[in-house]
């Protein structure tokens, strides 16, 4: 069985680290008719002990959610990759972690 890796164009839009106690959000706008966003991995962290969650929505529907209660780096690899609906907006949100807490989210994605 062979595995092929797809090249991913780097973009600052795939990383978001806002001010403290603010949602970190990456929005992938609709890719067009018969085009799909594909997510292979998401990494995120907080710089303190948070009370937050990571949520991924596809066309407004939650397709992935996890609550975060500890200070550490997290990495989720989707195997197989998450292929989202055609021509839909995908939003990855790392919820505000609390007073003085900064979060950062990174997404590995491409369009098919």
Description of the structure:
- The chain has one domain (16-111): Jelly Rolls (Sandwich), CATH 2.60.120.
- The protein is built from no helices and 8 strands.
- It has strands at 15-16, 24-28, 36-46, 52-58, 61-68, 73-86, 90-94, 103-111.
- The strands form 2 sheets. Strands 1-8-3-6 form a 4-stranded antiparallel β-sheet, with no helix packed on it.
- Strand 4 (52-58) and strand 5 (61-68) form a beta hairpin.
Q: For the report, how would you describe the main beta sheet?
A: 4 strands, antiparallel
Strand order in the sheet with the most strands: 1-8-3-6
Estimate the strand proportion: over 45%
Instruction: Please identify which CATH superfamily we are dealing with.
Output: GOLD domain
Rg: 14 Å
* Global geometry: elongated
Gap between N and C termini, in Å?
A: 22 Å
Structural class: mainly beta
- Helical content (DSSP H or I, runs of 4+): under 10%
Number of strands: 8
Mean pLDDT: 89
Spans of 5+ residues with little confidence (pLDDT < 50)?
none
State the gist of this model.
Helix content is 0%, strand content 54%. It is built from no helices and eight strands.
């Amino acid at each position: 069985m062979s595995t092929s890796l797809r090249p991913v164009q780097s973009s600052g839009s795939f990383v978001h680290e806002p001010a403290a106690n603010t949602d970190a959000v990456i929005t992938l706008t609709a890719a067009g008719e018969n085009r799909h966003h594909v997510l292979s991995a998401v990494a995120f962290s907080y710089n303190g002990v948070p009370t937050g969650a990571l949520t991924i929505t596809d066309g407004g529907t939650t397709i992935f959610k996890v609550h975060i209660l500890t200070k550490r780096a997290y990495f989720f690899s989707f195997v197989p990759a998450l292929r989202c609906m055609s021509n839909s907006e995908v939003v990855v949100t790392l919820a505000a972690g609390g007073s003085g807490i900064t979060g950062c989210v990174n997404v590995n994605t491409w369009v098919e």
